[in-house]
Fold:
Amino acid sequence: AQKVTQAQTEISVVEKEDVTLDCVYETRDTTYYLFWYKQPPSGELVFLIRRNSFDEQNEISGRYSWNFQKSTSSFNFTITASQVVDSAVYFCALKKRAGNMLTFGGGTRLMVKP
Amino acid sequence: GAVVSQHPSWVICKSGTSVKIECRSLDFQATTMFWYRQFPKQSLMLMATSNEGSKATYEQGVEKDKFLINHASLTLSTLTVTSAHPEDSSFYICSARDPNYNEQFFGPGTRLTVL
Structure:
């Protein structure tokens, strides 16, 4: 069975602070995909990143960066110099290589205060 | 990127009525679509997988007769909440798999409120 755990249910930071959202996963598969999605108050899920289990290289996209550590089954997401517009719920998700089912974590609500 | 739409974006109905929600893939053909339900401040829970031309596959605990899914074409799947009750009030999100990218793309969601 697959499982995704986002231990932080809510995080509150002040604008310009860096913040890291944790994601820990469990799977018996050797090949899988990891995702991060952003859900702003409007409700629409916004795709942020997909990572293949064989690619442990960290990725940076503007103020966003992701740290994939297969040894600890973690796929953490860092926002640098946070902004009020980053306020949203962020979901980490896991998908097997075969099949389409996405397993979502519980989500982390990020509040960035001005 | 691939675009998925949902209609309506929100709906309010009386208890006992049925509500139909549409999910469309606008610029690709989706043989597989997914329906999720999200209660306030909770995560997305997969309800069912909708396959074009065949019966939907429901997750454990989801009532097939209450949540009717039809995937009659490669661009449209519908979810009908039959005899809706207040406990069915939720945010319903669909996604469609684009075979070109082997990726799921999400619709904007439908907020259902049953009075």
